[in-house]
Amino acid sequence: MTPESETVGSDPFAAADEDRFTEWLRARTGDRWAAATEHRFTEELADGSLDEAVLERYLLQDYVFLREATGLVASAAADAPDVESRGEIAEFLAMLCSDENDYFRRAFGALGVPESEFESPDLTPTTEAFLDLVHRAASEGGYAESLAVFVPAEWVYLEWGRRTAERVAADLPFTHREWIDLHADESFVEFVTWLRGELDAVGPELSPRRQRQVARLFERTVDLEAAFFDAAYGDAPAASGAVEE
Q: Which of 95, 151, 199, 233 is the most buried (most CB within 10 A)?
């Protein structure tokens, strides 16, 4: 999506009203941001009405995404401009490989999912599309391109996590509550705030072509986040639209 006011060769962010590069990126997603952050899945997760089969389908796909996305996080760390930034990202990577990985394994145990199933599930078209996007961002771009997928993927979860944490049902099982808590924890808030700051810093310095590419990656990620939740109900294909140069 390219606004009509943008012309080829112009600096799209400089022509926008937003002061922060990440706010400009989010504004471009329009109603699609709400589709990802206010989804039926997260509402039902918080009030306890989520069907167990839906949760299981979601977790099976998201566990695959977790394992593959660690490569994107590692790529972002490798491309980071300084040791401090690499350290911040490395700490987050360690959390994914410990706390979050532990949650998945305990959740699969509680849901009665055998290891053979959660280690190699059949992938949905949406998961395949998301993994393709992650691999492209990690291998074909630089720090900005990795952040263009990394930032919205974490920001979307922070947004719905903080909102739902304020009104969770008192008797939620740990499979629901801990998934919400992981994405509303103050350390996660601080990391996503820092991560946005990284993209805010590098984005305005990019060429107009790379700014547009980063915007397409960001928008595609938001689309796929909503489609990922849809797919847990078995009623949606992958979000349409390829990322083009």
A: 151
